[in-house]
Amino acid sequence: MILINIILMYNIYIVDILWRSLYMVVDEISVKRMNILHKRPVDSILPQFYMNLIPIFLNQNLPKPSLILSNWSLEIMLKSVYIKEKGSFFPPHTLSFEILVDLTRCETGIDIDSVSLIQSVKYLANYPNQTSLQNMSSAHLQKIVRSVDELLCRLSPRATDSTVERYSSIF
To answer: How many angstroms separate the CA atoms of 95 and 115, rounded?
Structure first.
């Protein structure tokens, strides 16, 4: 009976130590203590990685993967700009038209061309009929990707202060 009590007490002690260790780990990685999201809100390397894959698909004249990767790159970059400029840790799941207008605003005012590019790429990337996208000319697809690339280059300095993590053109 004493042996069972000792084993039981030892198990409770171990569970207590594990619980405290877990609490300390959670406390150490919390946003409040380390401010992880403020230091690196969104992985700024991901848009560069996605865009670096696009030339492979452009050479094969595959518009759907190129448009999907362009859309993902734009979404990540816009959300990182939103986080940095709005001071919000959690950007909205989908960015509204008003937010897009605000995020793409330039010194001269509203940049409606950028907003229409973002909306067009989003629409084409989510377009269910791939057969009609296959008829897109290579030159037109490359023009869209170049426009996305230029927009990412303009947004990148607003997303990160680090010159190393900034987006660089794929062309």
So the answer is: 11
Place of tokens 């008003």: 98
Give the three-state DSSP class for 22: helix
**Residues paired with residue 82 on neighbouring β-strands, in sequence order:** none
The count of other CB atoms within 10 Å of the CB of residue 65 is 15
Q: Are 46 and 112 in contact (CB under 8 A)?
A: no
What's the chain's average pLDDT?
77
Type of residue numbered 141: L
Q: Which of 120, 166, 163, 128 is nearest to 145 (CA)?
A: 120
121 has a pLDDT exceeding 80: yes
Cβ neighbors of 19 (< 8 A, separation 6 or more) are: none
pTM: 0.70
Q: How far apart are CA 42 and CA 165, in angstroms?
A: 11
Count how many Cα atoms sit within 13 Å of the Cα of residue 158 in the half-sphere of its side chain: 22
User: Residue 109 forms beta bridges with which residues?
Assistant: 106
- Closest of 113, 115, 80, 77 to residue 96, by C-alpha: 115
Q: 163 in helix, strand or coil?
A: coil
Question: What's at 78, amino acid-wise?
Answer: L
